[in-house]
Amino acid sequence: MFKDLKLRFFSGIALFTSFIIIVFIFPVLIKPLIFILAFIMLRELYLLSGVAKPGDFVFIIIGIVNTFPLIFSQSSPILALFIAIPLALVTIFFYRSIFIGLGQLYIVGSLILLLDLIISDPPVGGLNFFVFFVVCVALSDIGGYFGGQIIGGKKVFEKVSPNKTWAGVIVGWLLAGIFYYFLFLVGFFESYLYLFLFLGIALSSQIGDFIESYTKRYFDVKDSGQIIPGHGGALDRFDGMIFSIYFVKIFDLIF
Predict the structure, then answer these.
(1) Domain of 67, in residue numbers
(2) How confident is the model at residue 224 (pLDDT cuts 50, 70, 90)?
(3) pTM above 0.85, yes or no
(4) Which of 87, 209, 233, 237 is the one with CA 20 to 30 A from 10?
(5) How many domains are contained in the chain?
């Protein structure tokens, strides 16, 4: 039980502390760091799929080119998405893989929406909500981990992710709901409607986790990388965020 917990804990604390310092003290670094994150995620996708090898210079260039749409994410996210789509189609054409092309679009599209979220108006937008969003995703992940380890019980999709249990899923939802209620009490939100937003973030981040788990099983790899001690690669750590940002933007459009 709790394999690698100490390493996961300290690397998680280091990540979160760095995140808070960057958001509130050096916000100018957010966009370039998300560019770097996009490149790392794309590189991990190409490596785990087997189309690239470590040190492959061609795929370093391809990864950089495919981050290009992010330049327009805060001025015109629609334009950024329209650039990302043909780049994904080029990937599909050259590598004869719909899976890799759609994976590329999935990653880049999520980061386009994330950068747009950061400059959007509150309550579902701005730096504060960016932090709330990241914390909610992290709480869902923490709840899933400890709920699964301590309570155990029936697995959700054992063939895709053998460690994910229904108990962990529900604990993740519970932590997200408690976090929302705290924010409601201190005045960040004025309607219980946003409780569904936070529960939806928790659920969609769990779906994102399953998507990444399925991808790793599809390509028969354990982790997407080793860049984050105790967590694996960037895709392993931020898989929930990638999917849940789509839910957040849909919620914002509807409500």
Answers:
(1) 5-254
(2) confident
(3) yes
(4) 209
(5) 1
